[in-house]
């Protein structure tokens, strides 16, 4: 298109976005920023604090209705490595039978959890209470905390 000299041409800038009819919502663009998922937690080995002493520590003698229970704890490298009975209930043959069943269970639970705060062995309430109370005294003497 050719224009004559001196002709003024009026130009109108077009909007960047076309106008919307009245009453129609203007579309919007949303940007999603998903959070970066956190790395999974790394399991941490549970061990006694550095102030725990290594060695063999006798717990207190605990009186039960069926006899005295006392254990000793062996601590090595900041872990409970063994629990040795020094005395167990001894009133009647039933006490011995109960102890023979309960003590290995209690020892296994203690070594697995590294604490004296485990459940009592079923059917061996007095043995369990004496064993775990004596063990806690031994762990306290070793400055062992879980």
Please explain how this structure is put together.
The protein has 146 residues and is of the alpha+beta class. It has a domain at 55-141: Alpha-Beta Complex (Sufe protein. Chain: A). Helices cover 27% and strands 18% of the residues. Strands 1, 2, 3 and 4 form a 4-stranded antiparallel beta sheet that branches. A hairpin with a 2-residue loop joins strand 3 (67-76) and strand 4 (79-87). Helix 1 (92-113) packs across helix 2 (125-141).
SSE layout and pairings?
Layout: E1 55-58, E2 62-64, E3 67-76, E4 79-87, H1 92-113, H2 125-141
Antiparallel strand pairs: 1-3, 2-3, 3-4
Helix pairs in contact: 1-2
Main attributes of the structure:
146 residues; alpha+beta; Sufe protein. Chain: A; 4-stranded antiparallel β-sheet; 2 helices; 4 strands
CATH architecture classification name of the domain at 55-141: Alpha-Beta Complex
Cα-based radius of gyration, to the nearest Å = 38 Å
The CATH C-level name of the domain at 55-141 is: Alpha Beta
Unreliable stretches (pLDDT < 50, length at least 5) are 11-21
Helicity level, as a percent range?
Answer: 25-40%
Mean pLDDT: 80
Please tally the β strands and state the result.
Answer: 4
Order of helix and strand elements from N to C terminus: EEEEHH
Count of DSSP-assigned helices: 2
Query: What fraction strand?
Result: 15-25%
* Distance between the amino and carboxyl termini: 91 Å
Sheet/helix structural class: alpha+beta
Specify the biggest β-sheet. 4 strands, antiparallel
Classify the fold: give the CATH topology of the domain at 55-141: Sufe protein. Chain: A
Shape: globular
């Amino acid at each position: 298109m050719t224009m004559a000299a001196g002709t003024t041409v009026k130009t109108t800038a077009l909007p960047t976005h076309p106008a919307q009819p009245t009453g129609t919502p203007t579309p919007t663009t949303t940007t999603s920023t998903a959070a970066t998922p956190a790395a999974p937690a790394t399991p941490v080995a549970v061990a006694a604090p550095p102030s725990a002493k290594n060695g063999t520590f006798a717990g207190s003698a605990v009186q039960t209705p069926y006899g005295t229970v006392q254990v000793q704890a062996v601590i090595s490298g900041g872990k409970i490595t063994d629990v040795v009975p020094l005395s167990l209930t001894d009133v009647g043959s039933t006490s011995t039978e109960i102890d023979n069943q309960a003590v290995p269970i209690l020892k296994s639970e203690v070594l697995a959890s590294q604490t004296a705060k485990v459940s009592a062995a079923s059917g061996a309430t007095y043995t369990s209470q004496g064993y775990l109370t004596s063990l806690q005294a031994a762990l306290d003497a070793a400055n062992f905390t879980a």
